[in-house]
Amino acid sequence: MAKDYVMPKLAMAMNEGTIVEWLVEDGAAIEQGQPLLVVETEKVAYELEAPESGLIRILTAAGDTVPVEERIAVIAGSADELPQTGGESEAEPPADNIGAPASGAAVAAGRPGPAESLATAGGRIKASPLARKLAKQYGLDLSEITGTGPGGRIVKRDVLGVASSTAAPAASAARATGGAPIERVRLPLRGTPRASIARHMLESLQSSAQLSSFWESDITELKKTRQSLLAREKQLGTRVSVNAFIIRAMAAAIAEVPIANAALVGEEGVIYESVNVGIAIALPGKTQWDSILMVPVLRQVEKMGIVRIDQEMKRLVSSAREGTLTADEMSGSTITLSSTAGLAPPGAALTPILNMPNAVIIGPSTPRDKFVPVNGEAELRTMMPVSMTFDHRVLDGEPAARFASALHRFLENPALMLA
Amino acid sequence: MSDRFDVVIIGAGPGGYVAAVRAAQLGLKVAVVEKDEPGGICLNWGCIPSKHLIHQAAAYHALGEMEAVGVTVDRSGLDYARVQAGSRKVVKTLTGGVAGLLKRNGVCYVKGHARIASRGRVAVEEEGTTLECDNIIVATGSRPMQVPGFEFDHRQVISSDDLLALTCLPKSIVVLGAGAIGCEFAYVLNCFGVEITLVEAMSHILPTEDFEACAVVARSFKKSGIGIRCGTRATGLEREGDMVRVMLEAGDDTTDCVTAEKVLVVFGRSPITDDLGLEEAGVKLDARGYVETGPFNQTSVAGIYAIGDITKTPALAHVASREGEIAVEHIAGHEPQADRVDPDLVPSAIYCEPQLAGFGLREDQAKARGVEFTKSVFNYIGAGKTIAIGKPEGLVKLLCDPDTGELLGCHVVGHDATEIIHELLLAKQGELLAEDIESVIHAHPTISEAVMEAARGIGGKPIHA
Ligand SMILES: Cc1cc2nc3c(=O)[nH]c(=O)nc-3n(C[C@H](O)[C@H](O)[C@H](O)COP(=O)(O)OP(=O)(O)OC[C@H]3O[C@@H](n4cnc5c(N)ncnc54)[C@H](O)[C@@H]3O)c2cc1C
């Protein structure tokens, strides 16, 4: 008989987990104890083993974040029992739910295994009246939903969790008479990547003392230097990007003002030796309405030249797009780069939100050409707006300003950063 | 180290003592430090003595009802000192009960003022000892809020603590602040014949409750002779011999004053988070001194938890107790049902007559937030029982989601409202809909029939309206 494989609860405070990577192919035969997938919670990545042998149907793709106890795969004894790919297996008999013991990872002591989440007792689906009504409104089949309420009952949050993975039609469009605005779509947060983005952003603003500053750096020289590297694209094996220069400049400025590469950990400020740059990238969301923010980490930038930086960065970005980033590649940043160049209007200044626990985030934006005085003459130069936010708990305005000035100097004089 | 505790709790109020018992039940080695009597404000100077007084006041007042059947009762012999003594006796019985409960569960009870020496170390002053532990739960509660210009002299300008200790009643009292505590005392004192003026800066009494429900209480108060001054700020005090004059300023800037023997200042309560070593230990407080807490009532410092009146959740005994359970279960590695108290599922309860109880969304909040709702109000008078027992004032008000019938907010005002609310609360938590409540056969005659009728009003029409 086919059995549901659900997102296990791996830590006390875990509400959802991100599937970092499946270690087996969809449809593959698996052995009990074989590493199955990597799941990441807010902090830790866990490698999980197959609870039993059989054939596996993967239902949730890598990169997705799903609530605890939600079905992510089905393990079946034979190919016949395996649900069709993609198709919602309406005719499927209710699958048994098997727990996913974590291998090596510490499961909270004293906690029983994943609760029996089968909401069907004797063929009757256990669901709260509100959950039933909501499921009807969203057009969802209760037998497809895993209950997390008392006794495995399907409750409101379970229905909304499933509804969120398929943006539901605005249920209330019809009632928007009078003054209420007419809705287009509702995007429930629960169980989606947006829920954790929302939480991180709010936590960042609520738990640190953020201060932003803005300036323009003249990148005319930087562009020239870049042109000379582009001319050797074949030889270098990459089209070196402006971002690679910015990252290199950040590392150079950190060498001068190390406290910009720091974090408040517990009750201690920690200044890091390695410069690990988190690179904020926007990815298309699950629905046309939404986007996903990911911050893969480029490690030990201080040891890299511009070409390496560019290659590594591009590798990370494409892994992020393909959803194949490993847990290591998504954690351990010491400073962040969040560029809106090319997206925001020229000259845009932003107040980037710190990527906790980093003490500094740099937010360059779209450059514009401007007449500026050079040796008393008006010259057309390319000016790039740069925004910076720092955590005033970790560093004061003085070092922050020194760091900003150093970064500015390197951006304006690319020869210095190559030195 | 044999005498190391899994958890040390500071304060034995409804937060602390419930946490201690639960911790012991879960097999943790637990100590609770209390500088005063077990039971905290709730048992000693809050919920319990005030409810005893309300009961006495209502019984005394009800004697008058007998006149309708020809029985004349002589009510002149009221000896308030004995009312007071009775109230202290009730308190003693209950605090003794808590002490016994702690003992039976093997909780180590330490008397003294506790201070956090560092993470994992709690110093007890009087004992001169330091308790070593893995976790600390701070449950030190609150005290009457001191407001400049209205400082307590505990004689003429008094706090709720002072009021609960009075052995004889004044002729007149001005009550500043018409929150739950102010309204309950106004009711009690008025029943015992004290002339009451109730002053509230907001536009209605019980400003954190639904205005339609509050209007029922206000109407009843006025009928029984309580002077109510809403939308009015007290700006200062002047003592004149045995009397105190309170300066008042109404919203339209007109000023006047009221004079009484005593002024009861119940503007609110302040968390007790000073003199505890909290900030030195790195625990984050907000500007008003409340402890900032996250999931499972953890503070900003690992291993230190905060529960009850010192946190920003509603200052209610049942909130303190549940938060204590959540913290302890987290410490014990168990999984509580929820990682925090959901304020939408906390019933408020005010015990004057008519009583008021409610939870969730209020109508003014719904309007302010643009939440759409269907509303149903059923008046107590439509339920035969209320007329039979002479308690026709009251109503059940439900606010539901127009699409699903989900209960968004429920407000009951009237006789026994604080008991009746739980049917609705259970429905809310179990995600039952108005239509489910409507379909339950309610015993006749009961006040709960008003709940069924109100639920009917959501999707259709009540029978008795
Ligand atoms: C007049 C009145 C009526 C009320 N009526 C109700 C009601 O009907 N229903 C309701 O739900 N709530 C009511 N409340 C509110 C309720 O009393 C509080 O919400 C509740 O007591 C809070 O519990 P707690 O455990 O947080 O703190 P508390 O009950 O205040 O207990 C804290 C304990 O900690 C001790 N303590 C403080 N500092 C230290 C220290 N450093 N070392 C050792 N011990 C210390 C104190 O002595 C106290 O015993 C009322 C309050 C008042 C004032």
Topology summary:
The complex is a heterodimer of chains A (419) and B (465).
Chain A: E1 3-6, E2 16-22, E3 29-30, E4 35-40, E5 45-49, E6 54-58, E7 65-67, E8 71-76, E9 96-98, E10 120-121, E11 124-125, H1 129-138, H2 156-165, E12 168-169, E13 185-186, H3 193-207, E14 210-218, H4 220-230, H5 233-236, H6 242-256, E15 262-265, E16 268-271, E17 277-279, E18 281-284, E19 291-294, E20 297-298, H7 306-322, E21 335-337, E22 360-364, E23 368-374, E24 377-391, H8 397-412, H9 414-418
Parallel strand pairs in A: 1-9, 17-21, 21-22
Antiparallel strand pairs in A: 1-8, 2-4, 2-7, 3-6, 4-5, 6-8, 10-11, 12-13, 14-24, 15-16, 17-20, 18-19, 22-24, 23-24
Helix pairs in contact in A: 1-2, 6-7, 6-8
Chain B: E1 5-10, H1 14-25, E2 30-34, H2 40-45, H3 47-62, H4 80-104, E3 108-111, E4 114-118, E5 121-124, E6 129-138, E7 142-144, E8 157-158, H5 160-165, E9 172-176, H6 180-191, E10 195-199, H7 211-223, E11 227-229, E12 232-240, E13 243-250, E14 255-260, E15 262-265, E16 269-271, E17 304-306, H8 317-331, E18 348-350, E19 355-360, H9 363-369, E20 374-379, H10 384-388, E21 394-400, E22 407-414, H11 417-429, H12 434-439, H13 449-459
Parallel strand pairs in B: 1-2, 1-6, 2-3, 6-17, 8-15, 9-10, 9-15, 10-11
Antiparallel strand pairs in B: 4-5, 5-6, 7-16, 12-13, 13-14, 18-19, 19-22, 20-21, 21-22
Helix pairs in contact in B: 1-8, 3-4, 3-6
The site of flavin-adenine dinucleotide has 35 residues of chain B, from helix 1, strand 2, helix 2, helix 3 and helix 8.
